[in-house]
Specification:
By secondary structure, this protein is of the alpha+beta class. It has one domain: OB fold (Dihydrolipoamide Acetyltransferase, E2P). Helix content is 36%, strand content 26%. It contains 4 helices and 8 strands. The strands form 2 sheets. It has a 5-stranded mixed barrel. Strand 1 and strand 2 form a beta hairpin. Helix 3 packs parallel to helix 4.
C-alpha cells in the first residue's frame, strides 16, 4: 500500500510540474543584432558576447557563397527587419538541439513580437524544413506556407 501511494504521489507531482511548465511565460531572451549573414542566419549579442544563430525550422535561399533565386530578397528582408527592429528576442525550442553541426544556436527569432520565420515563409522567402521533432511553432508555419504556395509567392512562383 505504501509503495502504491508513493507511485501515485510521484505521478501527481509530475503532472502538476508539467502543467506549471506549460503555464510559464515564454522563455525569450532579448538580444541585439551584431550582423546579418543571410535569410536564415545572423549574429546576435548579449552582455558583450556575440554568437551565431540559425533560424529554426526554415531554409531560405542562399545568397552568400552560392547564389539561389530569391536569396537576395530573403537576405535583404531578414537584414532590414532585424536592423529596424525595436526589440529582438530569441527563444530556444525544448524539442530542438541547442546548436547545429556548425555550432550555431538554433532559435526562434521574434522581431517586435512577430515570429521572423513566419514572416519569411509568408512572403515566400523561406521553406519550412529541417524538422527533427515536434517544434513549437511548426503548425503555424505550415499553414502560412500553404497560403504562400496558393498565392505563388517568392520561391513558390
Amino acid at each position: 500500500m505504501n509503495q502504491k501511494f508513493k507511485k501515485t504521489a510521484a505521478l501527481i507531482v509530475f503532472v502538476v510540474l508539467i502543467g506549471i511548465w506549460f503555464l510559464l511565460p515564454d522563455n525569450k531572451d532579448e538580444v541585439h543584432l551584431d550582423r546579418c549573414v543571410d535569410g536564415d542566419t545572423a549574429w546576435f549579442e548579449v552582455d558583450g558576447e556575440s554568437f551565431k544563430t540559425r533560424f529554426l525550422a526554415i531554409d531560405a535561399p542562399e545568397y552568400t557563397k552560392k547564389i539561389e533565386p530569391w536569396g537576395k530578397e530573403a537576405s535583404e528582408m531578414t537584414c532590414a527587419l532585424l536592423k529596424e527592429a525595436d526589440k529582438i528576442e530569441l527563444e530556444s525550442d525544448p524539442n530542438a538541439d541547442r546548436t547545429d553541426d556548425y555550432d550555431r544556436r538554433l532559435v526562434w527569432v521574434f522581431v517586435d513580437g512577430e515570429l521572423l520565420q513566419e514572416t519569411l515563409v509568408r512572403e515566400g522567402l523561406a521553406e519550412v524544413t529541417y524538422l527533427y521533432d515536434d517544434y513549437k511553432y511548426t503548425d503555424e508555419l505550415f499553414k502560412t506556407q500553404d497560403l504562400a504556395k496558393e498565392e505563388h509567392l517568392g520561391i513558390w512562383e
